[in-house]
Design brief:
Blueprint (H helix, E strand, L loop, with lengths): L5 E7 L3 H12 L6 E6 L6 H8 L4 E3 L8 H7 L6 E6 L2 E3 L3 H11 L3 E10 L4 E2 L2 H6 L22 E4 H6 L13 H10 L3 E12 L7 H19 L2 H14 L4 H12 L1 H7 L5 H15 L9
Parallel strand pairs: 1-2, 1-4, 2-3, 6-9
Antiparallel strand pairs: 4-8, 5-9, 6-7, 6-8
Helix pairs in contact: 1-2, 8-9, 8-10
Protein name: Glycosyltransferase
Organism: Streptomyces similanensis
Keywords: Glycosyltransferase, Transferase
């Protein structure tokens, strides 16, 4: 059951064992997707190992860590109508890529399909799945699952052309909650995002991660998104909420300082969401505040 509709894009940085495991699993998929890997400046021999073990993978080596923009670089080489993202410590289940492509084929206004995330080796659901399943965002009757306000890049299949037209991931955000801005811009362009319960991606979290930096960047990116796209009053309300609730430590202080230092370009690029899209984000705020799964913004 080969399926030529979807290309898988993976970004990686100094996680050679995890990436090779992921590529092994992707190579076993019945869909036999094309795979593009952006090696974000690894120094652990990642590129050479991929070239030896998976010579059919298109390997991009920009020579530095581009963060999420490494996905933008990879998508330039995608020739299929759909692109599936996964991280170097996650992999799609057999049939999931074909299932997502079927949904996108069937619904012309659907831009993104996010799968159920199973955490390995225990095989348990990621806590975020409950929030996806119970999303408060209202959607049209034709939507095949719950409507989403954002998506998880490590577990989502998107329309390639729509991703490109929206500009991909913003280069300033680097990595950590970078999806929210892109999702909002896709919604503003008239697209819908959904969660698909019957599709699965596996995630075995790498131990090679800088959790403090990821949280710092996530707080900063949440502030930037808020200032870039939300109306003044909701933006002020969310900013004050973050200031009251994030951990009071150096990482949070630095996140707010970095966000504030960027106000000149934020104001230049500010573009408020249409009222109907802004309404979806207002509905999401309460559920995000109660979330136990979203660690970036406290």
């Amino acid at each position: 059951m080969t399926d030529p509709r979807t290309t898988v894009v993976v970004i990686t940085h100094n996680r050679r064992p995890e990436l090779l495991r992921t590529l092994d699993r992707l190579a076993e998929l019945p869909e036999q997707p094309e795979i593009v890997v952006t090696d974000n400046g690894s120094t652990d021999g990642t590129a050479a190992a991929v070239a030896r073990r998976h010579p059919g993978v298109r390997l991009l080596t920009p020579g530095r860590n581009l963060g999420a923009v490494g996905r933008n670089l990879a998508v330039r080489h995608v020739r299929t109508p759909y692109v599936a993202f996964c991280d170097d410590d996650s992999w799609w289940a057999p049939g999931a890529l074909a299932g997502a492509a079927d949904l996108l084929d069937r619904h012309a206004a659907l831009v993104a399909v996010t799968a159920r995330i199973v955490v390995e080796p225990a095989g348990t659901e990621d806590p975020i799945v409950e929030e996806l399943r119970d999303s408060p965002v209202p959607g049209p009757g034709w939507l095949p699952g719950p409507a989403l306000g954002s998506f998880l890049a490590a577990a989502t299949v998107l329309r390639t052309d729509a991703f490109r037209r929206a500009g991909g991931f913003h280069p300033r955000l680097w990595l950590g909650g970078e999806e929210e801005l892109l999702a909002a811009d896709l919604a503003a362009a008239g697209w819908w995002l959904t969660y698909a319960e019957h599709l699965t991606i596996h995630h075995q979290p790498s131990t090679v991660r800088d959790a403090t930096r990821r949280r710092r960047d996530g707080i900063r990116n949440t502030l930037w998104f808020t200032w870039l796209r939300r109306p003044v009053r909701p933006a002020l309300r969310r900013t004050l909420h973050l200031a009251r609730t994030v951990p009071r430590d150096s990482a949070s202080l630095r996140a707010f300082a970095e966000a504030a230092a960027a106000l000149p370009w934020v104001l230049r690029e500010r573009r408020v969401l249409p009222p109907e899209v802004e309404g979806r984000f207002r509905l999401l705020e309460d559920s995000q505040r109660r979330s136990k799964a979203r660690c970036y913004t406290g």
